[in-house]
């Protein structure tokens, strides 16, 4: 098996550009009380007075743009619809015009299976899906139909360089284990940990294989309770099932609000249990440091298995620690105590999950896990 070229895929956790962040953008939905809060904040914070569509990403933009593909969990609806899903504590939306913020960072895929895409009902979800589509951003996990929700999104990745290099298609599925209330919405991909869910996942992933073979399979999941360092046994069991029985290569987990460990489950297979909150306006929960997160970059190599058969194999995971401040992400310098906090936390939690190779610090201060013995 020989390796030709490689691609870099970036994974981010929750990207919540609604509520106060939406009010900071020049165009925003009409929310009087949130608008007043932002006007007050701007009086003492000069950076917020010039907040624009590139601002949420802060100094991570060059890193994001340099990758071949970028995948996020979009933790908000993008809609002007104003009728809230009833009896919910938080209902997030951003103005559809602010989808431009995702385009600034060249986001390729947005997971819509989470506890906020239906915050403004089915009408709000429909506008969110259409807004992403018109911006050329792929999505799955929720959609206009059941089929769109269950996916996969077929995301192209172009080699466009040397002779003999091949373009690829990546299958991306998304699902969420909450809110329970949305299990009855057919165009929301709700899952639990039952054998019925496993049969369902096995079927839809196999079906996609029959339609067209992809080079890499990713499953992006919003799972588990908030503020819990260790994934439950049922979460770990489902992650292993996706790899063992469904040919998934990368499990992209999120929802916990803070970083969790990674599991090098098998050579060339990786589970990120919790990416953390990438950017949002949330209050700080100090013990869990939900203001600290990371840019997760996975290198996949084109392994030529036969003249007409290519497969992308994850070979390296790099974790670039980051912090949210004033609704903006900053990459952390390795001299910063918070940089050490993120690295130590991910190292320890990953060891607890049985990750075998120890992670080391790369030249850019990123935590490096080798995933494949070349
Ligand atoms: Zn969530």
From TrEMBL:
Gene3D superfamilies, per database record: 3.60.21.10
Superkingdom, taxonomy of origin: Eukaryota
Pfam families per UniProt: PGA_cap
Transmembrane segments: none
Entries under InterPro entries matching the protein: Capsule_synth_CapA (IPR019079), CW_Biosynth-Accessory (IPR052169), Metallo-depent_PP-like (IPR029052)
Occurrences of domain Capsule synthesis protein CapA (ranges): 8-282
Family membership noted in the UniProt record: Belongs to the CapA family.
Name of this chain's protein: Polyglutamate biosynthesis protein
Source organism: Viridothelium virens (Speckled blister lichen)
